[in-house]
Amino acid sequence: MTTLLDLNYVLRFQSLPSELYSNVLPQGINNPKLVVSSHSTASLLGLDSIALETQESLKLLSGQGVLSTWQSIAMKYTGHQFAQYNPNLGDGRGLLLAQVEHKNITWDMHLKGAGATPYSRQGDGRAVLRSSIREFLASEALAALNVPTTRALCVIDSDSPVYREQQETAATLVRVAQSHIRFGHFEFCSFSNKPELLKTLCDYVIHEHYPELDNEPQKYLVFFKNTLQKTAELMAHWQSIGFAHGVMNTDNMSILGDTFDFGPFAFMDEYEPSFICNHSDYQGRYAFNQQPNIANWNLSVLAQALLPLTNKEDLMQQLESFSDYFKESFFTKMNAKFGFICAFDSHQDFIDDSLKMLASCKLDYSYFFRKLNNIHIESVRQEIRNHCLDINLFDRWYTQYEQALVKDGQVPDEASQIKRKNNMDNVNPKYILRNYLAQNAILAAQLGDYSQVQTLHNVLSKPFDEQPEFEEYAQLPPDWGKKLEISCSS
Length: 490
Hints:
13 strands
């Protein structure tokens, strides 16, 4: 059995100037108990997930000690929060414990809830059980949906008290990612007027993640282009699956285009373009339909930070290409969701009209697309129709859908329908992390029953499979479970 002691630890980020981090030891939580773990994330590190159940692992991953091969640090960065620059940011409750090299890939092992750091801003540096469970479930669910994301190795509960709106228990979450570097790291270097530090950081990122650019004359510009393309692709993923992040501050933007930092996120129930999942977002800056625009704005902030390294006009030209990258990726994904096989730009008007229909009919987003796989069956079509607020609009839309399939070159015979259904089954999930499902699992876990978290994780790890024994997890949310307000406090 490969344990934490056996992993191949390396110190890469710690080789950078100390201005970018502070050495901090974790502060342990009491009586650690394993809530849930991810076998697939453990395999990324070369770790046997069963090894996480040992007392030695629980002590290490609850912050009660460190290995001699680790050098735990809190990263320093800044960022724009709700469009306002904040210089006083950094890892306020998390530590980069170590980096693990496995199969020629280096992974960060980051402990959230590790206690106070120099960047805690008078906070206690703790994470609570509910937010730790939500991040674990969300990151692993997104990974199973093939969305770029940080991963989660495990959640550990304790009996250490923490105080938010009420008394809760402290928990730790081990986040795994190829990088924890954010747009805000570059902002820190630039806004602090430290061009040499900026160059050192950028060279590090390029060498670690784009080594083919080491000798590229315009490597900083190409690095920005790569970041922009990956961010555009990520936004297309989010919009196509109905995922709202909720807090797209620049310090929550991964330089590798991963979904990063899970706060008041939500998978939409009824399709609502202006959906706001963060109850603190009073002006709707981070509403669902604003996410691509905000990503572009955040990239403009990154471009500004990179000005000491490359030409402004070239950066602006790259920024102007964001919309094209996003649209191509988004409509390619939406084509697949509708079962189309033609080029990405063949059905843009129909897809736009379809989304308007979903909004007007108040249809559940994920439910609709999963049922769409079998919409050629009369009973299924009638089931969708029965959920529509505007039945006549739906009937007109269905006629347009049949016409769009003909335009797509698809023959309306049984063999074509089966083939289309099979293709759509692989992109339209049956199971998503609805807020009410997460809430039910959290409430049970807070009473010491972790089985619902574990079951929900197992179901979400196979979102496209039928899993008839877990049909209840695919049901539409009850009225109380719609539009749950999620707090940022964690």
